[in-house]
Amino acid sequence: MELPGYKPNTKPHSRQVREAAKLIAAARKPVLYVGGGVIRGEATEQLRELAELTGIPVVTTLMARGAFPDSHRQNLGMPGMHGTVAAVAALQRSDLLIALGTRFDDRVTGKLDSFAPEAKVIHADIDPAEIGKNRHADVPIVGDVKAVITELIAMLRHHHIPGTIEMADWWAYLNGVRKTYPLSYGPQSDGSLSPEYVIEKLGEIAGPDAVFVAGVGQHQMWAAQFIRYEKPRSWLNSGGLGTMGFAIPAAMGAKIALPGTEVWAIDGDGCFQMTNQELATCAVEGIPVKVALINNGNLGMVRQWQSLFYAERYSQTDLATHSHRIPDFVKLAEALGCVGLRCEREEDVVDVINQARAINDCPVVIDFIVGADAQVWPMVAAGTSNDEIQAARGIRPLFDDITEGHA
């Protein structure tokens, strides 16, 4: 039997790379729009070289977190529905999008016909079906992203372009947005534990060498926002597949692949109830993953939408994990052969995390009892323009009114 094969075109066309270099030379408000293909294509070192060579700001999608260090001054964070205001503003006000290994999905673009209205587009991807699928590419480049970036760097250097890109006003504007609208969160109105605080502290304590895996929902977005990723493949999630229950099985795989690495599954109480039985396999087979269970008693993201868009008509979102403690996740963890811990107070968070980190001969589950009403911000409502982003509920940035520089 002969089956038709697929041979990807990995080498970019030099003429297209040259045209991309010309657009970069002419741009005054460029953005490196980086997708998960940069990680899968092993091109993160080349990305950093390109960014530092040109000084162009970088945004990393949900699947590209860790492709470019969060600590780098050129990193504006994650764009899209729950991205940073600075990253969203950069895309919306850009005059050139350099899209690398990304697909212009609706969670990034918002309402497509209002996305980055003044921007020309360089789109590089190994899959020709992705190029032009959602947004017209002025310069399409089919090829392996590492090869594309490598050849683009060589072309820019050959034509002495890096020193000619004038972005002082652009960076002044973006730094103004970043300063005015940083990622932040406040205390819970009922005094309960803040989920953002838990995840932020977990990231600080476990550090950049740990691997973090998330399910789907609010906890996934908070993990993408409040943990600082400094290297590729330190963040795993199901992305556009939206696979609830992904965290524990994926964490198992990560721990088997990297037995000397600390692996945390950050899960919600909804996701956890889909695949927690796999912890029995972890206990039997000696796979000591650690689970940070963000237990808000609800299907939190659905509850957030019901709160914001359906006049708080809550339906089928209460999981009873708060009101009745059913299931009792500590007892469930113990029944599955794990150590079960619980944390309900902010002052105990650090100690409980460190207690879990000290246990490395079996899986550990921490049941963090967090506020039911915490919401993920910033937010672009589905089907609306990115220009309508809210930094917090009722707080809508007006990009053109930010005075520190202009765009």
TrEMBL record:
Pfam families: TPP_enzyme_C, TPP_enzyme_M. One of its GO terms (cellular component) is acetolactate synthase complex. PROSITE patterns: TPP_ENZYMES (PS00187). It comes from the Bacteria. It catalyses: 2 pyruvate + H(+) = (2S)-2-acetolactate + CO2. Pathway: Amino-acid biosynthesis; L-isoleucine biosynthesis; L-isoleucine from 2-oxobutanoate: step 1/4; Amino-acid biosynthesis; L-valine biosynthesis; L-valine from pyruvate: step 1/4. Its EC number is 2.2.1.6. InterPro entries: AHAS_TPP, DHS-like_NAD/FAD-binding_dom, THDP-binding, Thiamin_PyroP_enz_cen_dom, TPP-bd_CS, TPP_enz, TPP_enzyme_TPP-bd. Residues 215-368 form the Thiamine pyrophosphate enzyme TPP-binding domain. Its cofactor is thiamine diphosphate. Residues 17-152 form the Thiamine pyrophosphate enzyme central domain. One of its GO terms (molecular function) is acetolactate synthase activity. Keywords: Amino-acid biosynthesis, Branched-chain amino acid biosynthesis, FAD, Flavoprotein, Magnesium, Thiamine pyrophosphate, Transferase. This is acetolactate synthase. It comes from Mycobacterium tuberculosis.
